[in-house]
Structures are given as structure tokens and as C-alpha cells.
């Protein structure tokens, strides 16, 4: 049975549609990553999964049961760390203990609070008595995380947990999340721009764009300005003068973005071995990350200030001796480029 | 100037000697203001929370009415309550005219819009992240209300203080509904008005000092609670 199943979810703010998901499924005891640009609907989706607000339309099922707003039974199993870590105007101890108290889980409360603070690298003796205003941004974020970890939730929803914190705090947050998954089998759903982390920890990586799920894995999005060509296609001139060509362009290209699937791209050492039917772009490898779950290497190629993402297996990468900085030729299929209109239609 | 200094000296003598007439007015004031504050807070905080937290049709219009009622003149409230509790009024049979509960009723009407309006503002001004945080930690409806009120506690205390200040210092309601009856419904403010008219500055100043002392005591108590 799935942990979450979403059906025909539609959501809007003040009449502006922000989320449109026909089907979405999250497996039990899994780690799911949500990635996508700002405004793609990640926060809204987490808010719906955390039952913070009900969808305008559609159904959310939690372990097969239809979830309703304020459903106490489900909400006691789920905890959400919002993007803005807001602390209650109380001491650190009171902040961490708050959730335990309202869930009436107060056995060895001080021990639970101390353990949660330790998980995020905060010394309980030093921090428990501090008021909320005597914390740095990173400490406040970690206290907010500790308040969720203290609940030992079955589902932990993390909304960009590593943003606005220093590298050390971010690492502690990442370790705490991994610890929750390993120790208590907590299912994690993480929205983040930290692709390296997501690649490392997630079983599933879901890509959102403009309120819809584009699919699993990282897609490459190329924003305009796009210009129509005589054959019904469109071109986008990149910053270095290279041209990205696409077929089957929509009539109105205003604000439209092109989406390239990693499966429709390949990397080559020279333009001669890219295949006659493919278009090519010259670029440089800027980043290599291993997707721990699959063993594939995510390769980021920079061409004319646009980033292209594709996946290679370790053997291919090793045989080609490609490293960050290596010059490569990126081949793509103009006929397989998809188009995404700005905002939800 | 001499008569003011003389009056102040006599006032202190009246206070320290435990003058029964002075302390009768003090007791009446504390009694009615306590009743009025208890009633206005009990009704005003939930209504203020609803006005500040909930979205409903006519909310703006309701807010406009509540804000307008902040300017209610005390003599008008006195007149209104008098009309209701006088013998021929709809509440005449309750015998509230010239009684402390009658004055408390009027003072509740005076304090209620202040508590509602300032509590609503306090709730509206709570951080947008508060609701999400409370819900994300598992709060249900009850905890959402209590948690929000607790977070806004300083501003709600300020609302209560503002209302208390208005109730303590009003004259119109106490005079019209209470009738300023010695040993019975004479409050500090009506006594000051009467004694000043009679040229008894000492009693007036003594009562004024008590009023200030009460205000100081209440503010000191609230300040202590805030630090806690």
C-alpha cells in the first residue's frame, strides 16, 4: 500500500492556479525528493501532504484512507518543517517539547527533547534554556528541525531544510534527516535545490515545473526568448552564440520554456560521433554527482550559460576520462523537446 | 499653589489614616472595574480572535463597526444603560439602577470594543508562519486557538490594560447609572468630581493618587508577567 496517493489534485491561491497533479504516489518507508525551480509548487505540495491546507479539488489518500483537513490520526504521524523556520516565543526546550505535549507524548519529555537537540548538533545543556530570540538563523533552523525529530514522525516533510544556513548547519540537517530515516524508518519527502544531497539520499526524485509533475529525474529547462523558424520549429540563441533548435513549437512562445529529457541527450568527445540526425552543442562538464540509489552519474554540462543535465553510467564516464572542466559535445533530439507554457493553463 | 500642596498633604493623611469614605470609593471602583474587565475579557478575547483569525463575509464591515465603537462617549453609554435599567426600561425589573452591577454593565460596554479591536489586531499581526508551525507540529483546532492566543499574549495584555485604563477613569457611566451614592455607588472618579465641586481638594487629590497607584500596580504586574 502506498504511503500517499494523490488523485486529480488542483490548488490555487486567490484564483491563481498553483498546482495541478493528476496522479502522484509515494511509497512507504521511502525517501522522495521534490526538485524544480522556485514557484514550481514544491511548498504547496508539501503543505497539502502535511494536511496544513486542503486542496481546492481532488483527493489525498494516506495509507489508503482519504485524508481530511485536521485529521488528528494522520497528522499525528506526519511532521512538516516549513521553509521559514518560525519558532514559538518560548525557550528552545519549550519549542521542542510543544509538539510532544500536544500529542500527549510526555514520558521522559526532557530526555526526548535532549535527544532531538543532540541529533541536530545542539548541546541540550547549553541551548535548552535559551529564549527563541537568542539564536542565530542556523541554530533556529536546527531547533525547528529538532522539534520535528522529537516527534519521531512516520513521515517527515522537509521544505528546503538546508537553505539560509551555513555549510556546517546544512550538513547537520542532512545527517539528522538521514538518521530519522535509518533509526525510525521515517519516510522523508524533501523539497530542495540541493541536487547533490537529493541524488545521494532519495529513492525517487520528482521534478516539478509550473505546478505540474514533469516526471522522475532532473529535466533540463531552457527558458526563452525563443524565436519561431519557418518550418514550425523554434530556436534559442544561447549566450555564446550557439543555437538550440527545437521542432513542433507552439504558436505562442511568450514565456514558454523548452524541456529536454536526459534520455534524449547524449555526450560525445567530438562532433563527428554524435550521429547525423542529432543537433549538437559544445559545452563543458561542470559537475558530476553519483545517484546512490541507481549508481548512475548525473552530469551537468554548461553550454552558453545554460545547464543541461543527463545521466551516464560509471564505466562510460571512466572510459572517456571525463571530469569537471572537460570539453564535450552534447547531442540532443530537436523532435523530442517538449514545451511548457508559463503558469498553469 | 499653597492650596494644592496643602491638599496633597491632607490627602496623604486621609490615605494613611484609613479614611473610610475614601476607601469606600476605592472599593467600589475596584469592584465595578473587576466585574467589567472580567466580562469584557471573557467576551472580547474570543470575539477578537474570531475577527482577527477567521475569514467570513462581512468581516470588514464588522471591523468598521467595532472600530467606530472605540469612540463611544461614556455619557452616551451611561444614557443607554440608564434607559435600559431604569424602572420603565426593558431591564427595569432587575433592579440594576444605582447599583455597582449596573455600573459594571455600562463599563463592560465601554471596554468590550477596545478588547475586541485590539485583540483582533494582535491576532492579525502574528507571524504568518505561526499557523503553519502549529499545524505542522500536530496542533488541532483547540491548540491552534490556544497557541495563537499565547503567541499574541503580550499584545492581548496591552489590549486589556488599555481597556482597564478607560474603565478606571470613566465618569459618565458611574455618575449616570450609579448615581454617585455615598458609601454605595460612589467611585473614585465620581468622588473626585463631587469633592472638587465642593472645594474639598484634599479628598480629590487623595483619590487621584489612589487611582495612579492602582494604575502603577497593574502595569507593574503586567510588566512582571511579560518578563516571565
What's this entry about, in short?
The complex is a heterodimer of chains A (345) and B (228). By secondary structure, chain A is of the alpha+beta class.
CATH class of the largest domain in chain A: Alpha Beta
Please tally the β strands of chain B and state the result: 0
- What name does the CATH topology of the largest domain in chain A carry? Rossmann fold
**What is the gyration radius of chain A calculated from CA atoms?**
22 Å
Q: What average pLDDT do the residues of chain A reach? A: 89
Fraction of residues in H or I helices of chain A: 10-25%
Oligomer: heterodimer
Biggest interface in this structure?
Answer: A-B, 27 and 16 residues
Helix content of chain B: over 70%
Number of alpha- plus pi-helical segments of chain A: 9
Q: Let me know the CATH homologous superfamily of chain B.
A: MetI-like
Q: Which architecture of the largest domain in chain A does the CATH hierarchy give at level 2?
A: 3-Layer(aba) Sandwich
User: Could you say how many structural domains of chain B there are in total?
Assistant: 1
What layout of secondary structure does this protein have?
The complex is a heterodimer of chains A (about 350) and B (about 230).
Chain A: E1 4-13, E2 16-26, E3 31-35, H1 42-49, E4 57-62, E5 65-66, H2 72-75, E6 78-81, H3 92-102, H4 109-119, H5 124-127, H6 137-149, E7 155-159, H7 167-184, E8 187-191, H8 195-201, E9 204-209, E10 212-216, E11 220-222, E12 227-228, E13 234-237, E14 243-246, E15 257-260, E16 265-268, E17 279-290, E18 297-303, E19 306-312, H9 314-320, E20 327-332, E21 338-340
Parallel strand pairs in A: 3-8, 3-9, 6-7, 7-8
Antiparallel strand pairs in A: 1-2, 1-4, 4-5, 9-10, 11-15, 12-13, 13-14, 15-21, 16-20, 17-18, 17-20, 18-19
Chain B: H1 2-16, H2 20-53, H3 59-69, H4 74-85, H5 100-124, H6 128-136, H7 141-151, H8 153-169, H9 172-178, H10 188-198, H11 201-227
Helix pairs in contact in B: 1-11, 2-5, 2-8, 3-5, 4-5, 4-9, 5-8, 5-9, 6-7, 8-11, 10-11
